[in-house]
Structures are given as C-alpha cells and as structure tokens.
Records
---
Amino acid sequence: MKRKKQNKRKIIFLLLILLAIIFLIILYMRKEKNMPDNYSNEAKEKLKKENIDIKEYNQTLEAFLKSDDFKKENIEAYMQINFQNEEDFTAKTNALLEKNYSPDEINDIFTYLSKANIQKLLEMDYVNLQDYLKISNLDVSKIDAYKEYEQKNNTTINDAVTKVNLHLDEPFYENVETIEKPDDITVLVNKFHALDASYVPTDLTNVGTYSLQMRKEAAEELEQLIAKAALDNRELIPYSTYRSYDYQKRLYEGYLEIDPKETVDTYSARPGHSEHQTGLACDIRSSILNDRLTDSDYEWMLQNSYEFGFIVRYPKGKSEVTGYMEEPWHIRYIGKEHAKKVHDLDITYDEYYDLYIANH
C-alpha cells in the first residue's frame, strides 16, 4: 500500500515536470510566433540572446542586429531611425546618438547633408542644425562663422552661408588656394583662388582675324557673339583676351607706379588671380569707345551673351562680392548651360559657383 502511494507521487511529480516543460515549450513557440519572419536568422538569434520581444520588423534594427554596433540601450532610437544603405551606417548612427542627436535629427542629417558634411559632424560636438539643414551649400564646420556674419551684417542665413563660403568675412587675398583643375571650363579664379604661375592653356587659338587668343571653345563662341551683335547693328571689338602670368605681373606692377596698392586692387588682378590667364575671358569694347562698352551695348551684352556661354563677370553693384569695380566690358566663358543659369538668377559667378558647382 505504501509503495503504491510512493509510485503515485512519482507519477504525479513526473506529470508536473512534463506539464512545466510543455508550458515552457508553448511560451517559447508563442514567442517565436510573435517574432516577425522578416528578420534574418542571425538577427533572430541576437534578439533571443538579448531577450528582446519585438512585434514588428524594422530594417534599421535588422542592420544593427547583424553588426557589431548593436547597443541594447539604443533600441528605441534604432526603431525611429530610417535605414540608410550606405557604408558605416550603424557606426555613424551610434556616433550621432552619442553626441545627443535625436532620431528625428539623425533622419534629417542623412536626408539633407552630404557625406562630407556628415563626416565633419562626427568630428564635432553637437550642433543645432535646425536652420541650416536645407541649405545646399552648407559647410557644417562653418556654422559659427555663418551666425557671426549673419548678425554682424544683418542678413539672411542663406546669404551668410554663401558669403562666408566665398571668404567674404576675411580680407581679400588671405587664405589663397591654388587651383587644382585650371583646365575646367567652370574654373573659379578670384582673390581667393589662384592659378599656378606656370599654367598655360593647351588649346589656345586665334579669335577670328584678331591678333588675340582664347581657348578654342570660347574663341568659337565669341565669334558667334560678335556676329549676332552685328546682326543687331552693334559693332563689338575684342581687345584683350589670354594673358600669361608674366604679362599680368608686368601689368599689375605698372599700375602700382601710378596708384597705391589698395586702389590698384580694385581694378586690376594680381598675377595668378586674373581670369585672362585661363584663356576664357575677354575684354570687349564698343567700336566708338577705346576700352569699354556704351550703356546700350552693355545692356545688350547682359541680355544676349549667355546664349553663347558668356557672362558679364564683374557687373554693376557687385563689387563687395567680386572685389573689383564694375567692368561691363569684361566677359567670361563658362558654357551655355551655366551662363543661362547665372543670367536667370541674376547673381555673380562667385555666388553661382558656390551654390551650384563647388562640392556638387
């Protein structure tokens, strides 16, 4: 009788153990069932290991689970951040979270900022980007300078960004950069970007019957521009095109014998800083004047030169940007597409270059 009771207890005990096992299996299976099928096996294993119960699939979380960058404390943030198919996405995201950027800010950063700007952010302390994210020519490393320029000059954020990018918060001829691609049709030559003294264009050719040279593409379009002017009963005559570095040096030094340096710098480029050295610039005059255009011919040039890829490089009222007094007679070839945009936007080439060419 006693033995029967003992056997009965053992059976009950074994049944309880079996029920417990079945219960645990059911719980496990329910957890497996609740886990979205989209996750890879690798991601599922990490979710189990970290004892994380996820009800929905998230591509960003998947990326982190499959990387070495997963941090359990960041899981809520991961779920709010849009996945980006780019190198080091998980590492960059963690770095931004560590700098106290919110998930919404991180989404904006990946949406609006270039890879170069994101890399700069990773090397900086937290920056409030709210007012700057959608500015196409933004350089995040200059935000403090933008703010200072904006306040000092009582201007807009967009204008401050462009002006600081053009170094207009600094004295002219400081922090000069040597141009790396002088043969580019869109090359920017100004008081902060200089050509090497040895640079000479390789495709210089004569401009029509004039004893002048320009780069071939520019020379051909200049001839077409002059022909179009003739059809409109205007006689335009080019008189200064390509100049070598040494020629510009002699010209500039000659002016210094007449005027003080600060005055010369308003009307003559220092050697290496002249567009004429590119072979893409031309000084052009009205036939009735020695070295400039009549007001009527200047207006014609403003409204027609872009059709041939030329712009008036130093227009009236833009000296604070270009660094030179107005030169209605100085035209510059940049190609038809860019010239039309400069014309339509009614801005200087310096501004256009920063907005639409630099870093694009």
---
Amino acid sequence: MPSIRPHEATRVLIVDDDPQVRSVLSDVFQLTGYIPRVAENGREGLERFKVERFPLVLTDIKMPIMDGIEFFANVRALDSDTAVIILTGVGEMKTAIETLKAGASDFIMKPVNLDELVIAAERALERRRLILENRDYQRHLERRVEESTRQLSQAFQELQETYRTTLEALGSALDTRDIETQAHSHRVWGYAVLLTRDLGIKGQELTNIEHGVLLHDIGKIGIPDRILLKPGPLTEEEWREMKRHPEIGRRLLSRIKFLEGAIPTVYHHHERYDGSGYPVGLKGEEIPLGARIFSVVDAFDAMTFDRPYSKAIPLDSAFTEIKRCIGTHFDPKVAEAFLGLPPNLLEEIRTKNPD
C-alpha cells in the first residue's frame, strides 16, 4: 500500500454515515501517515471543517441531515483550495461527474479499492500543493514586479530631476556668458511652465517645451564673443552671424537623444506669428507651439527686467504691449492665455533669486 513520509503527515477529514466505512478508511489513512478525523454526516463534517480547515476531504454522497453534495458546496465556499474526493455508488455517477466540474479533485467508486483511494488522495494533494505554490509564486512575482516598477519609477524621476537641474545649470551658464541677460533663461522657463500648464499641456510635450525654453539660446555657444558681447549695434554681417544661433542650437541638440524634443522650440524661438521672423519665416500655427509660447514669455521678460540698454517697465505696460502685438509677433490664443495668468505669480517668478 502507498505511504507518505512521516514529515509529510497531512490531516484528512472522512465524512460517511456508515461507521464501518469510517473506521476502515480512518485506519488506512493513519497507517499511510495521515492524521484522520471523521464525521457521520455533512453537517458534522462542516462544523469540523470550519474549525480545522482540512487540506484533504473524503465524502460520501448519500448521507442524512446534510448530503455530500451540499457539504461539498459549503467546503468549496469556505476554502476553494481544499482537495475533495467524492465516494460514489454506481447510480450516482452523473452526480459525481458534476462535482468534478464544480471543482472536486476526484471520485472513487464503491466498493472502494483502498490502494486506489490512497493514490487518488496523494494525487489530489500534489495537485493542491502545485496550485498553492504557483499562486504563491505569482504573488511573489507580482510583489517583485511592483517593487521593481516602484524602484524604476523612482530612478526615472530622479533621472528626470537630474536632467532638469543640469539643464537649468546649463541655461544659467549661457546667461552668464551674456551679462545683459543674466538669469533670463530661468525666468522665461518659469513663465513658460506656468503658461504651458494653463494651456492644458502635459506629459512629454510639456517636458519638451520646458527643455526648449531653458536651452533656447544654447546656439550662442557658437557665436564669437566679439559679436555676442559687442556693446554697440551690430553690423549687417555681424547680425547675419548672430542669427545663426538657432541653427547651431538645432545641430547641438540633434546629437543628444533625450533633448530631441526641445529642438522645435530652440530652432524656431525667433519666428513671429506674421511670418517676419527667422530662421525660416514660419507663419501662424506653422510655428511649433513651444516657440509661440517662448515668444510671449521672452518679450515679457525683456520688458519687465532691467537691461543695460533699457529699463524695466511696469507689468501693466508690458501687458498692453503684448496686446498690441497680438497677431503680428504673438499667437492670439497663447498671448490671451498669458494675459490671463495671475500677475502675482508672474511677479514672484520675476523677482525670485534663481540660486
């Protein structure tokens, strides 16, 4: 007769209204290393199961008070992982098959072949073990995936913050090269973020515009100091050289994968809504949205911050000038949205120390 090793001893509940059957089955399972418990009907068996939650149950079908079918349904409701073997007579074959469809592990025909019964019990328990192990594995895997996802998300956020900080530093470095526009990049970035979010722009598009605004003048790296820092008006030739900085910026950023999305803003930040800008002379909505946003915030910063060649004007006066240039310099929708921003937030950005 099959047996299981002592350390694998498993509790089994035997439910049958025939005391002789209960006794024989109890002895057989005890001899093969199980810990048997018995009940004489479904109700008694259910009460025992509620207390002990057996991993393996054997039940007859025809019993008084509560039959095996009702007992089986109650056990499944309490613990769907319990292995249940149905003991059935010839006339109950259809009912036994229905229990298999409902989740029973097996059925054994009466009179019971004891060797066959013990083998069926071991097979049912092995199946139960594999199901539980697989479920535990899936839960462990889900926890690992969740933890890995959380760590990856955190790392990505930290990387994004590092990118942003690095770009801010680079923008500030560009500003210090041109002393006339010191901290300019930081301020226009602040205005642009405020305006872009007000326009409902989110996700990667928002990030691309932020990067483009911060690095709008990166192309000035390629402009000679004799032109960039010239105190007086530029000659026509010098002006042509200065107007190359958007193209230089485009070429620089095209070599950096994560900054490719910033190129439209950098390359077109001197375009005008009426088509009179450079480097391409785009008109209206042909101009990338980031460049149209930059055009407004850049003009606002130029008017409201002291420069060596001009004094800051009040915010109200700057708003009036922006209104005047709607449709020529500025996209009407973008300009109107900017004019609707809270003045106190604009003033906070204007006066904030970037350090």
---
Amino acid sequence: MIFKYKAIDQSANQKEGTIEAVSLEVAINSLQKRGLVLSSIDPLEEGSFFEKRISFFEKVSSKDLVVLSRQMSTLFEAQVSALRVFELLASQSEKPIMRRELNEIATDLQAGNTISEALAKHPVLFSDFYVNMVKSGEESGKLDQTLLYLADYLDRTHEVTSKVKGALFYPAFIIFTFIVVMVLMLTVVIPKIGAILTDAGQGLPIYTQIIINLSKFFVDYGIFLLILVIVGGFFLWRYIRTEAGGRAFDQLKISTPIVQILYRKLYLSRIADNMNVMLMSGIPIVRGLELTSKVVDNKIFEEVLLQAMEDVKSGSSISDAMMKSGEIPGIFVAMIKIGEETGQLGNILKTLALFYRREVITAIDTLVALIEPVMIVFLGFGVAFLLASVLIPIYNISGAM
C-alpha cells in the first residue's frame, strides 16, 4: 500500500511525501526511523482503472537510467548520505514508477541494507550488471566514480542502440506504408476501374488481368488474409519469446546477409565496452564474463561468453576461450591476447569498444545509403507496374473510340 504523510524533520522543517509499505504500522516505523515526527499519515486511494493501466504500461527507459546514474554520482561525490540521495531523487522524479522504487530503496537503506542490497530488490530499475557494479564501487570506496562509469556506459549503449533501431525503423515504415497504399488501391480503386475495362468488351493485356484478379482476391478474401496475418504474427511473436524461438531469431540476426554485419559489430562493441567498465571497477574477469552474457542481448553470443567463463574457470586464457567458438572474429581475439600478455587488457577492451562502436555507426550509414536507392527503385517499379496495368488499356479504349 502507498501512504501519504506530513511530518517535521529534525531541523523543524515541514516535509510531506509518499511511502510504500505492507501496512500502516510498517510505514509509521519506517518514517520514525528516518527521524521524522508525523503529523498525519493516510493511505492513498488506489486510483481509477485507467490510471492503473497507465502505471502498468509505464516503462523506465535507458535514458532515464543514464540521468539517474549521473544524478547519483554527483550527489555521492558531494558527500550526501545515501539515504538522503535516494529521498532527493524520489522527490524529484516525474515518473510514478521511479518515485515508488526510489522511495522503497530509501526505506531499505533506513532498515540497514547496503546500497547494492537495496538496489538488488528492484530489478525493474537495476539489472544484475548494475547492482554488481555498485557493489564493487562500495567495496573499493569509489562509488561516485563507478556510477559515472555506469552512466557513460549506459549513455553509449543507448546512443548505439537508438541508431540501430532508427536505421531499421525507416525502411520498415516505408515498406509498411507502401503495402497499405497498394492494398487500398487494389481494394478501392482497381475494382471500379476493372469493371469499366471489363464492360468495354476489349481484350486486356495479361498484366492487367493479373492486377484485376489480384484485386478480386483482396476484395473477396482480404479479411481472411488479414486474420491469417494477425494470427500468424501472434504465434510468431509467441515462438520468438520461447527459448528455441529466441535462439533461432538471434541466429537469424547474425546470419542474414548485410544485416549480420551491423548486428555482429553491435554485439562485439557491447561485449568489449561492458567488460572494460567492469574491469575498471575491479570486478573479477569470471564474474565479468557472466554478467556480460546477460546484457549482450543475443543468445548465441551469450552461450559463447558462458562457455568462455567455464573455460577460464578451468585455467584457460580469455583469448583461447573465446577463440573456440568461431563466433568471435580473429582480430578481436588477437587484441585480447595482446592485452593479456602486456597486462593492458582494460585499455585494449576500451580500444576495441571504441573501434566497434565506430564500425556500428559506419555500418548503419552504409546500410541506410544502400537501402534508400534499392527501396526507391522497388517502390517505383511497383507503382509504375500498377499504373501501367490500368492506364494502357484505358488509352487503348480511348484510341479505339
């Protein structure tokens, strides 16, 4: 339950806010432990059905987490207490879900939990990778620097991921628009023109007959085709969410010509960047490989990293462990080997992350530059064929009159 309270702190300042607790007694105890003298506390109404649905669909974006990490880093660097940090962040947060989670973290800290323990209870905001980074920062006494590393890493990840999504969204939107326009033409415009051409009694070219028959098919069976597409899309989505389906889809992404170059470089950039950040924070390499496998977002590379982790546990070097899979390119493995031999693995990983990040951006620009002319030609051919199929018979009829 969520309770709204008004209180006076130890400096005689008026305070008000909300707190989530399992009962009124727990909420009062938590607030009193913070040194607050309560003047009133009441449970909030649950809210309308519509408001609940908004809360259900509300998500915390990677950009929100970047901003939150930078704010946390600044406050810890200013020697603000951990409890006060999360109280301030909760009071300033505009998203209800973040405000609620941060308030709960403040309550956990008040109860004696460490920061990493409190964050671990809230996977909606903080992943295992994030929690382990914070734990490392606590142990090393460099929590503000660790949070800054995290913010920079998340910012880089957000930038590259957004570029990839943007590059793939553009052609998908154009193709979708083309399909919608063609379907409308075939179901609304072509039937009327086709009736005129058929009533004229003249022989029609084969391509015009194809267009008219295709139009009749969409008019007569379009609704069944739409239902089939929706049902097929639903089952495909369900299949992709299964273990086998997700693995097959991830394999497709790194095997499809042209697109595979983009995705492979994206995953390699993510692996190098993630491992570099964790090494800088003092996380052991075995744990680093395990955590990286969880954030790489591809089951094929996840399996590669987990197998590499097992090989490293058995005494193998990182480069030898990665070489076995065949998925990691030779230049990546060679650079890792150099880093191991020279004791500069962190710097090598940083260089690799920068290199592959640039390669991803270059691959995106190349992909967009390649797709645009191909799509223009394809769409132009489709529109020209449709118009020619209709206009040529009309021109012939007009000439015969």
